[in-house]
Amino acid sequence: MSSELIIKFLVAAVLAGTPFLFGTVGEILSEKVGHLNLGVEGMMAIGACAGFMAGYVTDSFVIAILAAAAAGTLAALIYGVLTVTFMANQNVTGLTMTIFGTGLSNFVGVYMLERSEGGTLKLPERVTAQMRNIDIPGLSDIPVLGELLFSYNPFVYLGLVIAVLAGIYLYKTQTGLNVQAIGENPAAADAAGIEVTKWRYINILLSGAICGIGGAYCSMIINSGVWLRDSVGGLGWISVALVIFASWKPINVIYGSFVFGALRVLKYYVPKNTYAIPTAFFDALPFLITALVLVIASMRKSKRSHIPAHLGVNYFREER
Amino acid sequence: MKEPLIRVVKKAELGRKETLILRLEAILLALVAGGLFILCLGQNPFVIYQTILTGALRSGMAIQATVKIAIPLLIASLGVTLAFKMRFWNIGAEGQIIMGGVFASYFALFHSGWNHWLLVIVMFIAGAVGGGLWGLIPAWFKTKYDTNETLFTLMLNYIALNVIVFLREGPWRDPGSQGYAKIARFDKNASLDRVFGIQFGWIIALVLLVLIWIYMNRSKQGYEISVVGESQETARYAGMNVKKVILRTMFLSGAVCGIGGMVQATGSDVTLTTAVAGGVGFTAIIVAWLAQLNPPAILLVTILFSILEKGSSVVQSSFGLSSDCADVLQGIILFFILGCELFIRYKFVFRGKGDVRA
What is the ipTM of this complex? Predict the structure, then answer.
């Protein structure tokens, strides 16, 4: 491979991995308070729809992002009310969110399409101009490095900032350590005076907002500003899986999403004639690797594993 | 410390009738919520609901189409029920359906000359084995290393999907197809017969329903499933081989889903496509849960959901509302049912009201 091609590949990997940056960091926040949310795909789909439509209607990129975050938060609120307050089964609630969210997103998409001119939905020029690759004078012009580090659309940097902030929040602040205690042992955390319910809600809602923005990336960037059905298309599920790969650390998500992004685009960069590997294999690769990571992680289940001990278990105060 | 405004207190178990009434109320509320959603879109909810109902049942052909939707959904719901009863989170019905379809399709494609009934039986067994093996993988890792089955079964869905893509683009590609790759249509000899104008998968589904009901409620193995589901410690204490129960149950769960894939491929599609499962595996989870893992109730919910699905496609053609509204309504209904579970198990005590130590 020529160096030019390698740079192209690395840039494509970053872009293909960005949805995971949001989805996985969001899911980590939720899992750290003990809530396994299988609704990431759905929350992302809802964010994808809200973000795109807001951008389409208002001509503003910022409003689009805010709408995506707000819609994701609302979806997470449904999940939160059902699992935290109503103590409903987390697996089923999350799955329902995924079916509901993808359905709603596609439904609204069709509704808007039917009312659009020419039967297509395309983001207005003013929005696409704002989500173009950021051009930092000086930095972006550095050969190789400029292209590799300083040439992405605003989502990429937003995702990186969110991942770093989430990492600091969870691992470097007192609040974050308290929050982690909830996922490990809610009864003990409760007894220690940590407001379990409150922090569960805060984390779940934050998770929804972040996933919502990730969804907006899928609908607004991936198809270059044209609305397509199912733009999230399984990326939310990979995000859930990537949590394990990142061993519940937001900082690890940064390279994790890059690796998985690379896996997604690998098929376009492997020399065609050298190896006769079917493309289906490449498409299955992220899932194969995740399954492998899952198995390996469970095989050497040590005390150092960062999986919250009470993941998936609802907490009823009077039963402690 | 001040007493909280509202407290949640466990209540004595409700009778079946009260539980049923609460759930019906929840469904009613869900329909109201769905109606508000439809109202927001500027449509009359009553007209839409009526169209869904009549659209699914208005003619013999419509009913046939509705039943056709119900067949794989019923089978897959029964399949995941076995696993769920054991509290094994089999989210992989989608993949198990696909592998059942793949295994059965092998015989449909390459042994279509066999005696018809022999072929049908072999395809049936192949479908069950394909789905069963695909379900056995996560179960084996679960028993061996306690690998999280929710995520593992999920990953297997996508891997299975790509197995079809691989077959379609490579070894099983129909040489006669121009342009995009597809798998050839099955020989007529390899497709399921029709009974009352519908592929006889519906009979298979109903027989499975009865068998699984008996298996779960009247057999020793079914009892073992519930005990393992309630508490693995109890099961071990009672001398059950928990690992064996998990492996056996997941094989069966996957096998039933695989039969669903075989029926869909050879009965309805008469070929193998990537849409052989088409989300049925996920909807089945909702159906099983709504029906409280009770086979007769599963039949009822499946019928309701199939009406919703078929009716929504009619709503799409007559009102321009996408048939995705079926997913939205299913989601809303389940949200309400999930919420109402709390009121079945717990009650709210307001500050200063009555017996605090209930």
Answer: 0.86
